[in-house]
Amino acid sequence: MYSVSSFFLLVGLTALDGVSAWGTLGHATVAYIAQNYLNDATETWAKSVLSDTSTSYLANIASWADTYRTTTAGKFSAPYHFIDAEDNPPSSCNVNYARDCTSSGCSISAIANYTQRVGDGRLSAANTAEALKFLVHLLGDITQPLHDEALDTGGNDIKVTFDGYTSDNLHADWDTYIPQKLIGGSTLADAQSWANTLITQIDSGSYKSVASSWIANSNINAAVTSATAWASDANAFVCSVVMPNGVAALQKGDLYPTYYNSVIGTVELQIVKGGYRLADWLNKIHAADIAKRSLEGRDEKLESRMAKAAPLPPANKPGRAQLAREAAGGGCGCDKHKRH
User: What does pTM read for this prediction?
Assistant: First the structure.
């Protein structure tokens, strides 16, 4: 297993609106949905790891990773929030881990790494908490279609007008302003309310018949494969929903209300997938690693598996999109959201 320090030497709570994928609203909503589907044992474990017994124990740290990547200590983690698919939307959308992830890491390799780390009982409490915080965030990031796309730096360089705001970019609107337009705010209370609505749809509404398919192939022992499938699922929407008629069509007039109405259903679908998958992932980690160790004590097979290194990302050099993100500080440009 590669530690935070050893791996990143190879490559060199709530965040403010404007630096979060999905925005603080979206990430907190993913977390609240996950909280609803954690089993009792996993909930108890997560609360202990995070030293938070409140009713918002995951939501409180859902955007921690965005804040952390803006610090000197956390700068290494900036590439972990996306994978830049070098495809050709809208004619062709696809994610290829071997092609698209780089030596600096990506969302897929980071999910594999922190899945390994969070269940490793040999790590310090602080490192275990860090791993859990990353997983809560990254399983939300990977469902945002533009976090799985290289074109125009994941949409950051696509200048658009949304709801009268003429200085927006497409990425910021998907991250933050489209969800906020639907809900009307970005507080934890807003996120809890939205999550409750989506949970109802999972339990007895439009998502009930499809929810099981979102986790059907989730396997913590094949984390790269699982996370690649999630990224591919989201990336497909870049062609079919995000920009089906190409970039130029997005820059003709205001994206509200016609474009907004065409995409808001996908925004909600991806948020709810993130929460449901996160709960399933953490439940599986707890059952396979934490609960087994607690029941059986020292287990040579378990220790052998945990000692096995999570796979290093492919040795690709950072592409143009990643370099552009890094030069811009990794943000979504949401600070430029203003009416002219």
Answer: 0.89
